[in-house]
Amino acid sequence: MGRPPCCDKSNVKRGLWTPEEDAKILAYVSTNGIGNWTMVPKKAGLNRCGKSCRLRWTNYLRPDLKHDGFTPQEEELIISLHQAIGSRWSLIAKQLPGRTDNDVKNHWNTKLRKKLSKLGIDPLTHKPFSLVLSDYGNISGLQNTETQINVSPNKNKNCTFMPKPEPPSIPTGFTNTEAPIRRPVVEQVQTGFSNEIIASWDSPSQFQLISQEPIFQPLFNETTSSCSSTASSNLIQLSSPPAYSCQPSQAQIPLSSSFNWGEFILSDPLTYPSFQQQQDIHFQRVLSPSEPPTSLQTPSLSFTNGNGPNGHVGGLGTLDFGSTLGVQTKTRSEATSSVSSFVEAILEQDSEMRAEFPDILDESFDY
DNA sequence: AACTGAGCCAACCGCCGAGAC
DNA sequence: AGTCTCGGCGGTTGGCTCAGT
After folding, report:
1. Which of A89, A92, A322, A86 is nearest to A197 (CA)?
2. Where does residue A203 fall: left (phi above 0), alpha (psi -120 to 50 degrees), or beta otherwise?
3. Which strand B bases fall within 7 angstroms of a protein CB?
4. pLDDT digits (tens, 9 = 90+) for A109-167
5. Residue A366 lies in a domain
6. What pLDDT does A351 receive?
7. What is the mean pLDDT of chain A?
8. With a 7 Å cutoff on the CB, does A35 touch strand C?
9. Are A335 and A134 in contact (CB under 8 A)?
10. Helix (H, G, I), strand (E, B) or coil at A300
């Protein structure tokens, strides 16, 4: 038996609010304060659902709200917080005075997500698309090329894969000439559950405390300095909340030290086919002994609930850090070779199709 | 001028947890 | 312990605006 509706929806007005209705809410709140929203419509003389009144107040009428556009600083903060904690809009909004979760969510969905995509960054994982693709190749049970081809990342509607990521460009909304995010996120793969990796965000006070730690510093540094981040010694203390099944419960992950996003994106096999000739050299260089091997690693995922990699499991999945925290069990070349196989398979199919249907597929057809 | 599609944002929906009873 | 109510939350939808054709 479900919860009964808070009001008779057939008898309440819906849709946009009129100035008169707004005035009634404001008048009511100014004299009675906030509380017991279910009684507000009756007491304020409104033919609205109490919940609707609360939302109207929370998202629009509150006097402390800003109604102007987001500043570049606010955008940077949203991106970095989203990178850290995922789509927990209310927590993000608490760090932005005068902004509501709805504001932040809408701004993310309409502006920031596209900005990141244009930079060749998957807004879901905050990683370059090429790295996300290689992560799919790393998911256990997807060993062979055919399986990988059958698993389309686009099945996840939240996954904003682009068929051909654009080369890195200068973001329009940022004050700096440097891209605000060029560091791949190695701490998490955010597929609807893994944002719980960073687990100490449950209270705003904790959040505030942690947000002042170096966790975000690399991002902000990079907006004003070169890509050689000073975060090489930074460690993120991970402690899983009891409600989730991240493993292990305690882990330390070093942040990327000298990673160059531009270099990485330029190595994107989808963007630059010559990547295959360079990748081994590239990763040998990046993974040289002087570099922390984990700087390019991502957590490998194992699903204990039967959902595939595209399943939005909402906290029920299990992240297995066993292979990435401390011991590297899968090399970058393995990961990228699976991507290469994937690309090769596509190119091979393309060649066959071109040979078979030369009139249909002209030269400009491209992936 | 009319149409169309994309972008944007306000509002809604439904689930959930907390707390009162 | 069970039920009910409220408010919070993230995801989704509806409708307005505007640029392009």
Report:
1. A86
2. beta
3. 7-17
4. 888 888 888 888 888 788 887 777 776 666 544 443 333 333 333 333 333 333 333 33
5. no
6. 54
7. 53
8. yes
9. yes
10. strand
DSSP SS3 for A50: helix
d(CA A367, CA A354): 13
Question: Tokens for A233?
Answer: 């010694």
Task: For residues A97 and A231, state if they share a domain.
Answer: yes
Statement to judge: residues A39 and A179 lie in one domain: no
Same domain, A17 and A133: no
Give the number of other Cβ atoms within 10 Å of residue A319's Cβ. 25
**Does at least one atom of strand C sit less than 7 Å from the CB of A51?**
yes
Nucleotides of chain C within 7 Å of a protein C-beta?
4-12, 14-16
Nearest to A195 by CA among A327, A46, A312: A312
Q: How far: A90 CA to C8 C1' (Å)? A: 9
| Pairwise CA distance, residues A81 & A70, whole Å | 15
Q: How many domains does chain A have?
A: 2
Please give the protein residue whose CA is closest to the C1' of the nucleotide C6. Answer: A36
Q: Give me the residue label for tokens 């099945």.
A: A155
For nucleotide B9, the protein residue with its alpha carbon nearest to C1' is A106
CB A123 under 7 Å to nucleic chain C: no
Is residue A54 domain-shared with residue A77, that is, in the same domain? no
Specify the length of chain A in residues.
367
Please report, to the nearest 10 degrees, the dihedral formed by the alpha carbons of residues A334, A338, A339, A345 taken in order.
150
pLDDT bin (cut points 50, 70, 90) of residue A87 is confident
Residue range(s) defining the domain that contains residue A140: 72-344
Structure tokens at A81: 């917080």
Which protein residues have any CB–strand B distance under 7 A?
A 2-3, 9, 13-17, 48-49, 51-52, 55-56, 59-60, 67, 69, 102-103, 105-107, 109-111, 114
| Domain co-membership, A220 together with A312 | yes
A171, A198: one domain? yes
Q: At what angle do helices A332-356 and A129-138 cross, to 10 degrees?
A: 100
